[in-house]
Amino acid sequence: MTIQDALYDVIGVGFGPSNLALAIALDDAVRRRGAICAHHFIEKQPGFIWHGGMLLPDSDMQISFIKDLVSLRDPTSPLTFINYLHEKGRLEAFINQKTFFPSRVEFNDYLGWVAARFEDRCSYGEEVVAIEPETAQGVVTCLRVRSRTGSGGETVRRAHNLVVATGGSPRVPAVFARLGGDARVFHSARYLDRIGELGLERQPAGRVAVIGGGQSAAEITLDLHNRFPELKVDLIFRGHALKPADDTPFVNEIFNPDFTDYVFGQTAARRDAIIREFRNTNYAVVDADLIEKIYAILYQQKVRRCTRLALFGRSEVTHAAAGADGLELVVVDGIAGTAGPRRYDAVVLATGYDRETGHRLLSALAPYVEDFAVDRDYRLRTRPDFRPQIHLQGTSETSHGLSDTLLSVLAVRSQEIADSLLAAKGRRGAPPDRRDIGPPPRRFAVNDD
């Protein structure tokens, strides 16, 4: 059964941090400017959670808490991380830790605290399956957004504009693709969901392989070592060594919002060179303190003459097969050129994410879109006979810089997109009848909890 829902000014696909920041920016426009902008979000998860599979007990954020959803744009907002701490009664205790980096568990709780304010603006448990044009006299005037629940129920909502922020899709190397149905092989995104189902605590001779050389791979390696006292863990990665992330002050300036202007203003070749130059801030790198923890474990193993954790750098898995008694990987040493089979009870793929640029979801709109390129305000370039605006969040690294997939620019980017959406509404003229767009956005009190 298909339900026909309302006409909105804006529909957001996905309700992670990017669209959550946009919800704040749009609400601020309502409170401060008296603007009317009916907006709604659709999220396929049953409730709000941020990287739930990687909320490890000892993992910390890698950026300052000040780069929350709103502080860089409006530090007086009631939805800052600081006010979250105040409302939770933990502000003084957090200060006493003398750190800029909260735990990932706490930051997820902050995001959920904010998301709860917008619960009436988000439909959880629905996956957007199609975006379709609605035309009048040869002009696309609005969009039909089709979403589906797990039980098969379908809803069609209409929108003047769209903001797509669906996040990344787990990247699975081709050698493991055909083992996708095996519960013993899974991506790091599902780590906490899966690791407790394997019975590793009952296997004193158990062995797990972690594939990857970045932060997630290192965190999972350490967690497995600590979680299962007898488990053997092999970390397999292509690099010569685990490399530290460069988070020094001058380099960190590439994540400042104004650096986005600089990157966008360059030629395509120059943008690519900038991204390659600074890849060691974000890709295949590990926090220095985590590297030191792993090195200390390896050193103590030498002292005790035992080996539970092993690092295999310069290595690549060339074959993977599943059997009743385990998983067999063929691992090639890139320098020695030697290869050999190894048996594991589980394999965790900490192999990163692919950023879907909208081609699949927006395929029905392809005739109206110009090469899926975006303008400075993250708006897709479209033909003159296409009136809706479509903004993309988190897929514009090649044009806007390395910060695009990270939290660093959320507060400012959301304001830029909100301004663009409100300007589009102004060009359309009078606001739609409120009977068509649902209730007005909720207003917040500072101490609303």
From TrEMBL:
<dbReference type="InterPro" id="IPR025700">
    <property type="entry name" value="Lys/Orn_oxygenase"/>
</dbReference>
<comment type="similarity">
    <text>Belongs to the lysine N(6)-hydroxylase/L-ornithine N(5)-oxygenase family.</text>
</comment>
<keyword id="KW-0521">NADP</keyword>
<feature type="region of interest" description="Disordered">
    <location>
        <begin position="424"/>
        <end position="449"/>
    </location>
</feature>
<comment type="pathway">
    <text>Siderophore biosynthesis.</text>
</comment>
<keyword id="KW-0560">Oxidoreductase</keyword>
<dbReference type="GO" id="GO:0016491">
    <property type="term" value="F:oxidoreductase activity"/>
</dbReference>
<keyword id="KW-0274">FAD</keyword>
<dbReference type="Pfam" id="PF13434">
    <property type="entry name" value="Lys_Orn_oxgnase"/>
</dbReference>
<protein>
    <submittedName>
        <fullName>L-ornithine N5-oxygenase</fullName>
        <ecNumber>1.13.12.-</ecNumber>
    </submittedName>
</protein>
<keyword id="KW-0285">Flavoprotein</keyword>
<dbReference type="InterPro" id="IPR036188">
    <property type="entry name" value="FAD/NAD-bd_sf"/>
</dbReference>
